[in-house]
UniProtKB/TrEMBL annotation:
EC number: 3.5.2.6
GO biological process: response to antibiotic
InterPro entries according to UniProt: Sel1-like, Sel1_AlgK, TPR-like_helical_dom_sf
Organism: Arcobacter acticola
Keywords of the record: Antibiotic resistance, Disulfide bond, Signal
Name of this protein: beta-lactamase
């Protein structure tokens, strides 16, 4: 079970064109006055990138992102994961590094996978670990992946309490794989956790209600 904590790259980057239909599309003009704080700018960037995400045609979607990719960190993030999925790692690293340099914390997860496997960059488990740590309090998927390091003692001493805390955080934010793992943890009493049928039933109910894991949407092209 432990070996399955880290999602395969193919699963992580399983990003396909959105099925939402938009018959017509025109790029709006986004002005960001200087008095906007960083959160306002980040929200506007996300909204702008989401307009591209809603386009059904892949060619049109890519054209949309390319129009804004120089200034929009979410466009950079999504173009980076798109190229990583295509195994075009030079472009993947370029865009993901741009997104990170523009303070998009979600780029850390994709970069952590590249450094963990050595795809497009020199393999660096330390770097992967640090990237996940940096973003784990914001990105629940990064928190879930970081749990593997603590539960298996990768680049750090085994810390079951920290690992389970990270899984709980990810589960509370809607990461379905984390929710399912908590069911097994509390059913079997794994990682120094007591067996707890109430928690098993609680997370089973959450899983039933969680029809779709939307936490990956932020990375999707």
């Amino acid at each position: 079970m432990i070996r399955k904590i880290l999602l395969p790259t193919a699963v992580l980057f399983m990003f396909t064109a959105c099925s939402m239909k938009m018959p017509t599309f025109s790029m709006p003009s986004f002005s960001m006055p200087s008095f906007f704080d960083s959160e306002d700018k980040d929200l506007l960037s996300l909204k702008e990138a989401n307009l591209c995400q809603e386009i059904e045609s892949l060619d049109s979607k890519l054209t949309c992102y390319k129009k804004i990719v120089d200034k929009n960190s979410y466009a950079q993030l999504r173009m980076g994961t798109y190229y990583a999925d295509k195994k075009e790692y030079k472009d993947a690293v370029k865009y993901l590094e741009q997104a990170k340099s523009n303070d998009n914390i979600y780029a850390n997860l994709a970069l952590a996978f590249l450094y963990y496997k050595g795809d497009g960059v020199k393999k660096d488990i330390d770097k992967s670990f640090e990237l996940l740590k940096e973003s784990s309090n914001i990105d629940p998927n990064a928190a879930y992946q970081l749990a593997r390091f603590y539960l298996q003692g990768i680049n750090t001493k085994i810390d079951n309490q920290k690992g389970v805390e990270l899984i709980n955080f990810a589960a509370s934010k809607g990461v379905s794989t984390a929710q399912k793992m908590l069911i097994n943890i509390h059913r079997e009493g794994s990682f120094e956790q007591p067996r707890d049928q109430k928690k098993v039933e609680y997370w089973e109910n959450i899983v039933k209600q969680n029809k779709e894991d939307t936490t990956f949407k932020v990375y999707k092209l």
